[in-house]
């Protein structure tokens, strides 16, 4: 049986459609254009021909990280999701853990939309209660505080930013945690300054407030 490619037909996703999809958590609706889809597939095929996985490519060529840089939360057994007594387990806290880059193969969005990926050496934990590998409400609050400090506090309108982390069942790259950030009608010079940086990471005071 031939598997049909998942492509977006009839024009790109508009900003209004993007907002609706993310707000409804219908992330499976996103797709690339036919051209983008086949570029991505051909790129992965070329990597595979050379014995390189897409995970290895992202780590080495796009992030300049080593495999042993990637780590999980270390607190055991049965830790709370986050604790200020375990700062090594706090996502979006250590600047060395985070890097912002462009999505090399974005979904099919209108030209006014920029698609960034924010990568984390520290694994962003799944919600233990999610059957599809979504993240918990607390993790979402933590990420939103980071995005507030990195984007909103720097002048980006809340209406011009949406973000999501694909559920585990939707991820094409699972070994390195990342979130997707979509920006609408944002000055390119602002984005350029962020590329390759960690953004504005959280402090212990941020976490203490969030964990109250």
UniProtKB/TrEMBL annotation:
Highest taxon listed in the record's lineage: Eukaryota
One GO term of the biological process aspect: N-acetylglucosamine metabolic process
Biased composition (Low complexity): 73-88
Pfam families linked: DUF3605 (PF12239)
Region annotated Disordered, chain positions: 69-88
GO cellular component, one term: cytoplasm
PANTHER family (UniProt xref): N-ACETYLGLUCOSAMINE-INDUCED PROTEIN 1
Protein name: N-acetylglucosamine-induced protein 1
Gene source species: Candida metapsilosis
Origin organism lineage: Eukaryota, Fungi, Dikarya, Ascomycota, Saccharomycotina
């Amino acid at each position: 049986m031939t598997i049909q490619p998942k492509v977006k037909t009839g024009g790109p996703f508009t900003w209004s459609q993007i907002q609706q999809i993310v707000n409804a958590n219908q992330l499976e609706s996103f797709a690339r254009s036919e051209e983008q889809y086949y570029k991505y597939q051909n790129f992965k095929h070329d990597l595979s021909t050379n014995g390189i996985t897409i995970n290895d490519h992202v780590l080495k060529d796009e992030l300049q990280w080593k495999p042993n840089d990637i780590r999980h939360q270390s607190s055991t057994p049965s830790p709370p999701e986050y604790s200020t007594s375990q700062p090594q387990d706090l996502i979006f806290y250590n600047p060395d853990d985070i890097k912002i880059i462009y999505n090399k193969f974005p979904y099919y969005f209108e030209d006014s939309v920029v698609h960034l990926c924010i990568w984390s050496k520290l694994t962003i934990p799944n919600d233990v209660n999610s059957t599809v590998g979504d993240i918990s409400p607390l993790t979402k609050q933590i990420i939103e505080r980071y995005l507030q400090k990195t984007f909103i506090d720097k002048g980006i309108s809340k209406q011009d930013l949406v973000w999501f982390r694909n559920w585990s069942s939707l991820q094409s790259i699972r070994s390195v945690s990342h979130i997707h950030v979509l920006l609408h009608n944002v000055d390119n010079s602002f984005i350029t300054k962020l590329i390759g940086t960690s953004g504005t990471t959280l402090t212990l005071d941020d976490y203490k407030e969030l964990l109250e």
